């Protein structure tokens, strides 16, 4: 999971995905990590607003230290899911620069069956209030549900 700062959207997305992956019994097959494209917040924990929103909605906030995405992280991943189109463009360029297939870099919302045309990002809640974090989570939840449904299908033996 990738966003800009790795303190709001991608840590929330990773926490939701991890909980759903556990519930689906896929935790031995699927590992989730999160990164930011920027280095502004490297080493920091998740934003308190993100942690509070996860708790309000019944998810498990995980221990977190913000990291900046590097090309080796893309190489190590099967799927790189971006919070918005700005992140997508940055990460695809990084993938290509490292000789990686940019098609494994996608928008997280591409897994949200309810997304509408022109509404394919996770709104950035940084600096906002509870409502902004709830809005981000409301886009993250159906996206992660769609993601885990697809993983369950693909990984079924
Ligand atoms: P995130 O939110 O990308 O969801 O972690 C942001 C965090 C920090 C900044 C912007 C967005 N910033 O400009 O520092």
What does this structure look like?
This protein is 44% helix and 6% strand. It is mainly alpha-helical and 157 residues long. Strands 1-2 form a two-stranded parallel ribbon. Strands 3-4 form a two-stranded parallel sheet. The longest helix has 26 residues, at 130-155. The protein is globular and about 40 Å long. It starts with a strand and ends with a helix.
Task: Please sum up the structure shown.
The protein is mainly α.
CATH topological fold name: Rossmann fold
| N- to C-terminal distance | 25 Å
CATH architecture: 3-Layer(aba) Sandwich
> What is the CATH superfamily?
Response regulator
What is the count of structural domains? 1
> What's the level 1 CATH class?
Alpha Beta
The proportion of strand residues reads 5-15%
User: Which sequence of strands runs across the widest sheet?
Assistant: 1-2
Structural class: mainly alpha
Helix content: 40-55%
Count all strands and give the number: 4
What are the bound molecules?
4-nitrophenyl phosphate
Query: Major sheet: size, sense and barrel closure?
Result: 2 strands, parallel
Number of helices: 5
What best-fitting shape do the alpha-carbon axes yield?
globular
Q: Which residues form runs of ≥5 with pLDDT under 50? A: none
Radius of gyration, in Å, reads: 14 Å
Mean pLDDT: 97
Layout of strands and helices, then pairs:
Layout (H helix, E strand, L loop, with lengths): L1 E2 L5 H15 L11 E2 L11 H9 L14 H6 L3 E3 L2 H13 L7 E3 L22 H26 L2
Parallel strand pairs: 1-2, 3-4
Helix pairs in contact: 1-5, 2-5
Bound molecules: 4-nitrophenyl phosphate.
């Amino acid at each position: 999971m990738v966003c800009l700062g790795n303190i709001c959207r991608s840590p929330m997305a990773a926490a939701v995905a991890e909980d759903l992956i556990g519930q689906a019994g896929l935790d031995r097959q699927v590992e989730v990590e999160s990164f930011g494209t920027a280095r502004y917040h490297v080493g920091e924990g998740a934003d308190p607003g993100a942690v509070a929103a996860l708790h309000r909605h019944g998810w498990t906030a995980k221990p977190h230290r913000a990291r900046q995405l590097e090309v080796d992280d893309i190489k190590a991943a099967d799927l790189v899911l971006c919070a918005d189109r700005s992140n997508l463009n940055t990460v695809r360029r990084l993938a290509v620069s490292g000789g990686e297939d940019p098609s494994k870099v996608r928008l997280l919302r591409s897994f949200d069956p309810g997304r509408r045309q022109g509404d394919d990002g996770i709104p950035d809640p940084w600096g906002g209030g509870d409502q902004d974090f709830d809005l981000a989570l409301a886009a993250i939840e159906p996206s992660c549900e769609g993601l885990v449904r697809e993983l369950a299908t693909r990984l079924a033996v």
